[in-house]
Amino acid sequence: MGRTKTEFTEEQYQMTDDYIIVSAEYRTTTEKMGTLRGRFTQIWKKVEDSYVIIYDIFRET
């Protein structure tokens, strides 16, 4: 990919005591592959004093 730059838009956050759900659109510009665009969703779960990703999905548009 070479050098990359990623920008996020349309970010949405939802939070409960034990979970965070993050979704957004992204645009990554790369030296070798051009521009990649898509959308992602992540679910983070609280484990003791930190959060871990338990679900991570993206699709290119």
TrEMBL record:
Pfam families membership: DUF4440
DUF4440 domain boundaries: 5-52
Signal peptide from the UniProt entry: none
PANTHER family tied to this protein: DUF4440 DOMAIN-CONTAINING PROTEIN, PROTEIN CBG16427
Name of the protein in question: DUF4440 domain-containing protein
Organism: Oesophagostomum dentatum (Nodular worm)
